[in-house]
Amino acid sequence: MARKNYTTDQKISRLRVYNIVAGSLHLVQALGFAYVLTLLSTQVTFPVTADYLSGPPGVPLPPERVTLFDVNVGIGVVSFLALSAVFHFLISSPKFFPRYAAGLRADRNYFRWVEYSLSSSIMIWLIAQITGITDIAALFSIFAANAAMIMFGALQEKYETPGNGKFLPFIFGSMVGVVPWIVILIYFIGPGSTSEAEPPAFVYGIIISLFLFFNTFAVNQVLQYRQIGGWRDYLRGERAYITLSLVAKTALAWQVFSGAIIPALT
Q1: Is residue 3 part of a domain?
Q2: Quick check: is 161 in a domain?
Q3: What is the pLDDT along the chain (266 residues), one digit of tens a residue?
Q4: For residues 254 and 79, what is the distance between their CA atoms, to the nearest angstrom?
Q5: Does a structural domain hold residue 1?
C-alpha cells in the first residue's frame, strides 16, 4: 500500500491536531497527579538550603546551614506537565496557530523553545534534588544552565538553516547543557562520601532514562540540520519534538510519583 503524501498545509493541520492530543495527555496526567496529591496527609518535599559563613573566610569552621524553603516535588511534577499542556493548547488556538504555522514554514518554532526553557529546567531542578542537591546556588545555576542550553537551540533555528552545515549555537548549547548532568553525576556517585546509603532504584531509573531522553532532543535537531532521511522535512522533526517531550515528561512524572509519592500514601 502506497504511503499517502501530504502537502505542507495538510502536515501543519495534522500537527495542530497532534498538539491538541499531546496537550490533552499532559493535562490528564497533571490533573490525575494533582488529585493524588490531595490524598496525601503529608506532602513529599525537598529542602532548598544555603550555607553561610560562621567565621572569617578560610577558618575551618562548619558553615551555618539554613533551610530557605521547601519544594513540593508533587507540585513540581504537576507544574511541568501543566506548563506543556498550556503551550500545546496555546499554539493550537485560533489566535496563535497562524503564527505557529508561519514559523513552521520558515523552519522554526520559538514557542517550543520558550516552553522547553521553563518545563525542562523545572525537570532538571527536580532531578538534581532527587540526587541530594539542596544548595540554592547550585539549583538556580542548574536551572539557568539548562535554560541557556534551550535558548542556544532557539538561536540555532533563528540564525542557521537546515543543511547549511553550521552548528555553532548547537555546540555552545551542548557545552552549557552538559554541566547540570556533570553536577548531578557527582552527587549521584558521591566521591569522597563515607556514607553507606544507596540511592533508591527509581533514582537510577530517572537519571539514566532522562539523560537519554534529554539527548534525543539534541539528536533530533542534528538530524534536522544535517538533513538526514525523513528529517529533510522540518515538520518531521517538529512531530518528533512533540513526541519526545510527551514521553520524557511522562517518564519523569511516573517515576517520581511511583518512587517518591505513591509510597507516602501507605
Answers
A1: no
A2: yes
A3: 556 788 999 999 999 999 999 999 999 999 999 999 998 888 899 999 999 988 777 777 678 899 999 999 999 999 999 999 999 999 999 999 999 999 999 999 999 999 999 999 999 999 999 999 999 999 999 999 999 999 999 999 999 999 999 999 999 999 999 999 999 999 999 898 888 778 888 899 999 999 999 999 999 999 999 999 999 999 999 999 999 999 999 999 999 988 888 776 66
A4: 14
A5: no
Give the residue numbers spanning the domain of 32. 8-265
Based on the structure, what is the number of domains in the chain? 1
User: Which CATH number belongs to the domain containing residue 227 in this structure?
Assistant: 1.20.1070.10
Residue 92, in any domain of the structure: yes
The answer to whether the CB of 6 falls within 8 A of the CB of 239 is no
SS (H, E, C) the chain: CCCCCCCHHHHHHHHHHHHHHHHHHHHHHHHHHHHHHHCCCCCCEEEEEEEECCCCCCCCCCCEEEEEEEEEHHHHHHHHHHHHHHHHHHHHCCCCHHHHHHHHHCCCCHHHHHHHHHHHHHHHHHHHHHCCCCEHHHHHHHHHHHHHHHHHHHHHHHHCCCCCCCCHHHHHHHHHHHHHHHHHHHHHHCCCCCCCCCCCHHHHHHHHHHHHHHHHHHHHHHHHHHCCHHHHCHHHHHHHHHHHHHHHHHHHHHHHHHHHHHHHHC
Whole-number Å distance between alpha carbons of 98 and 84: 19
Separation between Cα atoms, residue 20 and residue 91, nearest integer Å: 9
